[in-house]
Amino acid sequence: MRILVLGGAGYIGSHTVYELIARGDEVIVVDNLETGHREAVHKDAIFYEGDIRDRAFVDFVFEKQKVDAVIHFAANSLVGESMENPLKYYDNNVCGTKVLLESMVAHGIDKIVFSSTAATYGEPERIPILETDKTEPTNTYGETKLSMEKMFKWTGRAHGLRFVSLRYFNACGADETGCIGEAHAPETHLIPLILQVPNGKRDYISIFGDTYPTKDGTCVRDYIHVTDLAAAHILAVKYLVDGGESNIFNLGNGVGFTVKEVIETARKVTGHEIPAKVEGIRAGDPAVLVASSEKARTVLGWNPVHNELEEIIASAWNWHKNHKDGYQ
Ligand code: UDP
Fold first, then answer.
1. Average pLDDT of 191-201?
2. Does the pLDDT value for residue 164 go beyond 90?
């Protein structure tokens, strides 16, 4: 198949491109390189640098390239930034997706797999979280992703387009080749920040609060390997190609780990003492976020294989120790 990957130079996008190419698909990558990296684009992918808000550019790509389906990662994704600059998120995420959908409808492209987030739920009403649970985002990032899901739904009803929305929990780890990995600037995620300590780029890791109602007082999250996420996108494309109806799936491993457990595992993996300091809570952090991914397992046949936290952190460390400054 020929798959157009929007945002294919980013963290999860680049891993999905690697998996698609490994499985023999042809891949066209579009990325504006605002947060993505040219070096993360697989050498066998066709690459167009450009912005999905630019209708003429998106039309040009669809006119040049025959495409069976679209996988859409092109969005801003920092929770803190989304609260300080909400309109940036509405512009890139929501307006960008509107332009994309206009062009897809005009060119008769009717299948899209979408990179969504656990942030669409907001404060969970129960654990594990099910796809049918209420969606009340507590930040602009999650709100824009939810708006994008709704845009797919209504556009689908009017124009026959079908979508799969994949709501990820905590993406982490890196491709086993060691060629691509996580490289955000600024970095805000727990595992890459922890690994900055053994890399000599940070003296200690901050623990954002230790009085949550969890087993050791620190927040619990569901860490899922990026290669397992990539596999889910490919299964979702297949599901749509096989005639599946529009659908939404959680992607997590169903097991929660506390911040302290993650730090302890990183100490074991790296052999570094990794000093930690308890600091104040980060506003908007729910105590526990753990997914039920039963639906993805049953309907898509998804079977995440990198289930051990130690293995996940080892793969992240394999990338970070050799790329202390990311792709630079
Ligand atoms: N966290 C932390 N110290 C850090 C960064 C994150 O204690 O320097 C905590 C954060 O409060 C959350 C968990 O680690 O409970 C995972 O945070 P991350 O930003 O990686 O992902 P999120 O769950 O916010 O999407």
1. 97
2. yes
Kindly give, in sequence order, each residue whose CB lies less than 8 Å from that of residue 162, ignoring residues fewer than 6 positions away: 110, 111, 112, 156, 240, 244, 245, 246
Contact 171, 119 (CB under 8 A): no
Q: Is 193 in the pocket of ligand 1 (CB under 6 A)?
A: yes
* Backbone φ, ψ for residue 276 (5° rounding): -130, 145
For residues 36 and 11, what is the distance between their CA atoms, to the nearest angstrom? 7
Instruction: Identify whether 141 is a catalytic site residue.
Output: yes
What the block records as the tokens of 159 is: 């124009």
pLDDT in tens, 14-46: 999 999 999 999 999 999 999 999 999 999 999
What are 101's two structure tokens? 């959908």
Residue 219 CA: nearest ligand 1 atom is: 15
Q: Whose CA is nearest to atom 15 of ligand 1?
A: 219
Q: Which residues pair with 117 in a beta bridge?
A: 168
pLDDT digits (tens, 9 = 90+) for 205-232: 999 999 999 999 999 999 999 999 999 9
Torsion sign across C-alpha atoms 279, 255, 304, 241? negative
- Cα 94 from chain centroid (whole Å): 17
